[in-house]
Amino acid sequence: MSSLVRVELDSDKDEPPESELASAVRAVLFATGLEEFPYATHGGTLFVVSFASKLFGVTCRHVFGDFPPEALLVTQDRHGKKGSRFASIQGIRYPSSPRREAIGTDIIDLCVIEFSQEIGQEFFHGTAFPLDVHRIGTSRPGNELVVIGMLKDPTAIDGHDISVNWCRLEFTDVGISADPTLRRGVAGYHEPSFQNLTGISGAPVFDRTSKRLCGMVVRGGMDGSHLAVVHYIDIFDIMALIEAVAAGDDSKDYIKTVID
């Protein structure tokens, strides 16, 4: 079992494509409409990707909480600050009608954000993570995983100032969860500097063993005092939705082979 560690993502020790993925993450923020406190969050991570010459954001549906979809803000830079620009959004897409074995699973928590046509690679300074056969793939049991996202409790929003606490967490893939659309990662730790994993929903999961993006965290938490667990949607299912959105399809059927 791997150790759970927390380090700043600004370290120069990351190697591509992990460092590329670290540059693609954003905190999930919302406009409040209040002049004194314009931004708010329930916690949650989002990452920007490119596919078929288009840009998309990927996160979890539940991180919206009670905020309406139109209040979502995606910052131009990973470190939001006063004066930051926000990407214009064309639509937010979800899997709406799962069939067969997908009924009743967490696949409906997947959320793909479609940016407006005028938002190109240059808007995010080229940090969108490219989804191609060389950078994505399903993990296997025993592979080393890295989760790159925000931790909500140490994150602070004070008026226009946004101070996001980014983290890099290591896990080991232990196969599929009880939910067949999810895989599970576990990690042992000793005296961590955080109390919970609130905020990493929507965070990308990187397979260090194969050096590929392998999924997105749906939920995570502490199991007792010595074990951390994350459940994540496999990249195969994420790609099925992104491919449908990119092609303008209203529906898509596919059969998935589960690796365990």
Structure description:
The protein has about 260 residues and is mostly beta strands. It is about 10% helix and about 40% strand. The protein contains two helices and 15 strands. The strands form three sheets. Strands 1, 4, 5, 7, 8 and 9 form a six-stranded mixed beta sheet that branches. A hairpin with a 4-residue loop joins strand 13 and strand 14. The radius of gyration is 17 Å and the shape is globular. The two termini are about 15 Å apart. The N terminus is likely disordered.
Q: What are the segments in which pLDDT stays under 50 over at least 5 consecutive residues? A: 1-13
* Helix/sheet category: mainly beta
Please provide the ordered H/E string of secondary-structure elements: HEEEEEEEEEEEEEEEH
Helix content: under 10%
**How widely separated are the two ends?**
17 Å
What overall geometry do the principal axes of the alpha carbons give? globular
Major sheet size, sense and barrel closure: 6 strands, mixed
Mean pLDDT: 85
- Oligomeric composition of the shown chains: single chain
Query: Beta-sheet strand percentage?
Result: 35-45%
* Rg result: 17 Å
Please report the number of helical segments.
2
- Strands, total number: 15
Q: Summarize this, please?
A:
By secondary structure, this protein is mostly beta strands. It has helices at about 20-25, 235-245; strands at about 25, 30, 40, 45-50, 55-60, 70-75, 90-95, 110-115, 130, 145-160, 160-175, 180-190, 205, 210-220, 225-235.
